[in-house]
Write a structure and sequence with these properties.
The structure holds 2 protein chains of 2 kinds.
Chain A: E1 2-10, E2 16-25, E3 30-34, H1 41-48, E4 56-61, E5 64-65, H2 71-76, E6 78-82, H3 93-97, H4 99-103, H5 108-121, H6 138-150, E7 156-160, H7 168-185, E8 188-193, H8 196-202, E9 205-210, E10 214-219, H9 221-226, H10 231-237, H11 241-245, E11 263-265, E12 271-276, E13 279-281, E14 285-286, H12 293-302, E15 308-311, E16 317-321, H13 323-335
Parallel strand pairs in A: 3-8, 3-9, 6-7, 7-8, 14-15
Antiparallel strand pairs in A: 1-2, 1-4, 4-5, 9-10, 11-12, 12-13, 15-16
Helix pairs in contact in A: 5-6, 12-13
Chain B: H1 9-15, H2 24-55, H3 57-72, H4 75-86, H5 91-114, H6 118-127, H7 131-162, H8 174-183, H9 186-214
Helix pairs in contact in B: 2-3, 2-5, 2-7, 3-5, 4-5, 5-7, 7-9, 8-9
Classes of the chains: A alpha/beta, B mainly alpha.
Bound molecules: adenosine-5'-triphosphate (ATP) and magnesium ion (MG).
Adenosine-5'-triphosphate (ATP) binds next to helix 1 of chain A.
Subcellular location (chain B): Cell membrane; Membrane
Membrane topology (chain B): Multi-pass membrane protein
InterPro entries (chain B): ABC_transp_perm/SBD, MetI-like, MetI-like_sf
Amino acid sequence: MITFEGVTKRYADGTVAVDDLSLEAPTGAITVFVGPSGCGKTTSLRMINRMIDATGGRILLDGQDVREIDPPTLRRGIGYVIQQAGLFPHRKIVDNVATVPYLLGWDRKRARARAMELLELVGLDSELAGRYPFQLSGGQQQRVGVARALAADPPVLLMDEPFSAVDPIVRASLQDELLRLQSDLQKTIVFVTHDIDEAIKLGDMVAVLRVGGRLAQMAGPATLLSEPADDFVREFLGRDRGIRRLSFIPAKDVRLVTAPADLVVDASGRPLGWRGDGGLLPYGTFNPERDSLRAALDAALLAANGTAVAVDEDGRVIGVAPREALDEVLGQYAARYTVPDPEDPYEEGGHQDTGHQGAGPEDPAHEDPAHGEDPHG
Amino acid sequence: MGDEPLVRWDWIWRNWDTGRPDSILALLESHVVMAFLPVLFGLLLALPLGLASARWRWLYQPTVSVMNVVYSLPSIAVFIVMLAITGLGQATVIVPLTFYSLAILIPAVVDGLTSIPDHVRNSAVAMGFTPLRRLVRVELPLAVPVVLAGLRVATVSSISLVSVGALIGQGGLGYLFIDGWQRQFTTPIVVGIVATVLLAVLADGLLVLAQRLLTPWRRA
Ligand SMILES: Nc1ncnc2c1ncn2[C@@H]1O[C@H](COP(=O)(O)OP(=O)(O)OP(=O)(O)O)[C@@H](O)[C@H]1O
Ligand SMILES: [Mg+2]
């Protein structure tokens, strides 16, 4: 766990980049620092591994003040990933990844073997190991950056806008990859971004910072969407908060009924379309075990009859969710302000996130359901 | 010069290696020594001075200014002043040329170090490099291309400047120019020019080769 206790950073020129910041980044979870440019995200992150020293307050790493630890030692135990990957241009990919193991005094063979393991873990071809960074695409370099940060298996990972320099498609796949890795590795991750969608997609906890380095709100993503603490946070979150919040509600509670004969399936039970006058009509599917309510709703909206087709892992029809069934769950959640965030230590307040403005029905975004894609899709 | 041919091959042949200090081979040898030692000394001095200037930026401007002043001094004047200090030896040429090399190499070292992108330097810090190790393992290797570029300029200009020393009796191949001029005899002049150019081309080629070998990591 990383604890900020009244941390302040005043630069030599008088700029207060971070002002009395207190928060906790829980062990094994992704905590995202998000906020507009210049709000002190990078400064906050770098105070954790002492690339910048705080001028007030303290930062504890599992209870120990980071200032008591010699910086190089501290840093070798903390992975660090940045926007431009920061790879060493003069070292081959495998040696880039093995950097921290080398620093820790591992022998060359073991360090390289570990590096090869990591390249595979982040989904890179082992053929790339012998190349130099300039011979890799931006997305590949970024993966190498992640592999390098993980090489010595540090319990803590700091990531400063690691995916913002790549195109949206690569970004999305890197984000998915990170979530997949994290579900196996359970690192304590502090992730900095200025992109609220990225924050909501990746964060177990999201800390919204405002310019001047003040914490505006810290909450789980679903709570953040339904209960922004103030106008700043609400504005920062942008439109469609209600719909986006549905991404955090699993679709497993949607009541399914037996598929009607109108739904044409192939020999193995996979859907082909809804029977219509002039042939098959479009349909939409969701997987109740894996998908969110947002995906279910999306599936319903894709079909002319407003019925979502539920499928299993293999894509075979297991039932359908008629409009009334979706209505029931939506009603359930619309009536409730808060979706329980997994292990949300801030649920009970003590922070500024207890304002119950809610995702009220006055939110115009609710009338615009066909908007956007499921970020967890 | 009348009917005299531009180059008399028999003269070259006779004077190639007479064992005397004014044979072509002996002049070539002293030229090489007087051209390369200053570059070597210059590099050895430029590394610490450049490192210091890159580390303490306020040092950089004064250092560069002093070096530029040195560089702007006419070489012949410097040689003559040196004559009073070091006498009629090779040192009279080597010492001033070392300063000329420094004037080129200090900025090269500083530029090499400052050309390293912040994100690379920062990530080295964040990985847990100690300052010394970062310098040796990351910063110096990354400065190599710029330093080598400076080394090429310093080497070629050193090779050409040595000849001026002939006016004070220590000019390597430059002696051939004076000799030819005094005797109104073109062959030594042509030999001097060709040999100097070949030497420069060869030295530069070797440095380019070194660059290829030392920095396989650069975009071609
Ligand atoms: N070395 C420095 N000296 C003085 N002021 C600084 C320094 N570094 C950052 N600042 C200032 O501190 C504030 C916070 O900077 P920081 O880099 O932490 O912001 P950020 O949230 O990471 O912004 P971005 O999203 O643009 O990366 C800014 O106002 C910045 O200008
Ligand atoms: Mg930043």
